[in-house]
Write a structure and sequence with these properties.
alpha/beta, 10 helices, homodimer, six-stranded parallel beta sheet, 35% helix, ten-stranded mixed beta sheet
Chain lengths: 361, 361
């Protein structure tokens, strides 16, 4: 957390996507960050966005992405552009010495991803993706339970899903269903979270095998609207994930270990902003007096999870800017693994659900 | 339900498995059924079981399965024998004119299943499998929600799992892990329920494609200890199932439709005997004020679900015995579909997760 004497990290918002509203508020709420600038492809759009989001007069308005890259009063950029544009603008941001908070999916594929990260490394800037739920204090509690060898034991299976019923207009016009914009569709946009959950529960070990499930739904351009996949690790650990633009909201994690069971009903975006819950069941076997009701746990958060994310990002940027620290490797590392699994599922979808081996990737 | 003047259906318990204790109590609690006899391979075992379960003096004790088949005071048999013995004893029961409540899995494969049902049809006896949860009044409420085109819309995906951590002794000695006894292992014993849930949510339409997920765990005899599978139907409906003897209790259903979401945390055996809950979320989209907390629904039951099952079985037997009705086709029909999916998953496991088509089966 920022100490009182640190200057807040000055973040520029690069693009006026819907999600940028949420993150703008998050930057406002994070104690160690401030909105310094906003850019769009036109000055008019940037102005409208600034006004609509109640930006202070001091926030600089840029009429082009190039312009915000050159702004000396911007430490870091939040990039909610369509995925296909990430590789260009994230690299240019890195080359301009800006730290990067980039929306997921980070890239169209891991090869693009690696180019972005190489640029960040070369220029000594921090990169983090916009997976908000990872920063909720509840997530730390989930981790505590999942890695408690007594209460949970060893993971055996995790099921995670994220679905969201979009409307007709979205299905026709949204960038998330356009092959040249967010060509990974529901897999990149929603599946990213479910995959991250599966990796999280496996201590970010990559699965050995990934296979898409039969029943993928594509739109007429071949973009994934709905799909599922199975993942498997050593020792019989398995995961199944599901994501869809065509089904009502589902944000479930169910994880079973040798000793315990974990359920989360709203892992992506908690039902309430100030607290989030999960349930656990401890060891019960065939001969016990069956199972007792799960225990509900509630975890409060002082600021919403997206503000926790901005706070963590700004903390890392602050370490670099104020203390000469090196960029942190944890977040890009788990981003890359998520991207690798996204790629593998996409490959399996394209190959009629063939098993894809991740060994050596 | 039995009318006051009907004599209770007289049920014989054929085999003294652990589950027979639960069902004995259920027969006791069902208003239209009574325990008439018990059989084991030795008179001693049958006597011990009768005493341990508080059977009344009037209950006849048989020292062989043949003997209970010939008992004229037995209308129906509850058969909790190892699966591999079902085909022999269920057919002999049918040929003796006894109605049959048989534990799941009904048979080792659908070919055996069909022989059993053919014998039942030939002899005009009722057959029903021991899937208790299907008879809980909660299940009727789940059905109401799942087939409500406003509140739930059309099903898109269902995830269902049943896991149960057994102990070392079970893994070595239990009939459920012996290829010559319950050779379908966790798939037949636990997966049966998860598959039934997937079929239930699809109005018992068979999936078109079934594929085992990578990561199946077999014991040294090749019996399944843990596995998952994906199922797909027309219109992009999908399901994933998971079953395991190696993970702590998990009994989850998560179903997402176009308009609604359903979660059940204890679909196989409710946490409480007298009531059971589930949660629903109604339509929420990308632009709504996100999602509201799920609504919890509670459904009371006067008698435990296994007694509801016996009551339904005895009702159908009563219709035949007292009113000359024909055996009911619903229960054997959904049993057969469950068995077909069990077979297909087993086949896919044996063929390294190859997709199995169920068209024409």
């Amino acid at each position: 957390m920022a100490t009182v004497t640190d200057t807040p990290i000055r973040i520029g918002v690069m693009g006026c996507a819907v999600i940028a509203r949420t993150v703008s508020r998050a930057i406002d709420l994070a104690p160690n960050a401030t909105i310094a600038a906003v850019a769009s492809r036109s000055l008019e759009k940037a102005k409208t966005f600034a006004t609509a989001n109640g930006y202070q007069q001091s926030v600089k308005i840029h009429g082009s992405y190039e312009s915000i890259l050159e702004d000396p009063d911007v430490d870091a950029l939040y990039i909610p552009l369509p995925t296909s544009l990430h590789v260009e603008w994230a690299i240019r941001a890195a080359e301009s010495g800006k730290h990067i908070l980039v929306e997921k999916p980070v890239a169209m594929n891991v090869s693009e991803f690696d180019k972005i990260v190489a640029a960040c490394e070369k220029n000594g800037v921090q990169i983090m993706d916009g997976t908000m739920w990872a920063h909720h204090p509840r997530t730390a509690k989930l981790k505590e339970f999942l890695f408690d060898s007594d209460r949970f034991g060893q993971l055996k299976n995790i099921n995670s899903c994220f679905s969201l019923a979009v409307d007709e207009d979205f299905l026709k016009n949204n960038i998330r269903v356009k092959p040249n914009l967010d060509g990974l569709g529901a897999l990149g946009d929603l599946g990213w979270y479910a995959i991250r959950a599966a990796l999280f529960a496996n201590n970010f070990e990559l699965p050995k095998i990934v296979a898409a499930s039969p029943g993928t739904v594509l739109n007429e351009s071949g973009v994934i609207l709905s799909c599922g996949a199975s993942l498997s690790w050593e020792d019989g650990r398995t995961a199944s994930i599901y994501c869809s633009f065509l089904a009502n909201v589902g944000m479930e994690i169910t994880a079973v270990g040798t000793n315990g069971t974990l359920c989360v009903q709203d892992f992506v975006i908690p039902f309430e902003e100030t607290q989030a819950t999960f349930t656990t069941c401890l060891k019960s076997g065939f001969n016990d007096p069956w199972v007792s009701r799960p225990t509900e746990h509630s975890v409060k958060t002082e600021i919403p999870q997206e503000a926790c994310m901005v706070r963590e990002f700004a903390r890392l940027v602050g370490e670099i800017k104020n203390k000469g620290a090196k960029p942190d490797g944890f977040w890009p590392n788990i981003s890359r693994k998520t991207q690798l699994v996204v790629d593998a599922i996409k490959e399996s979808v394209d190959k009629n659900c063939q098993q894809i081996s991740l060994s050596g990737r």
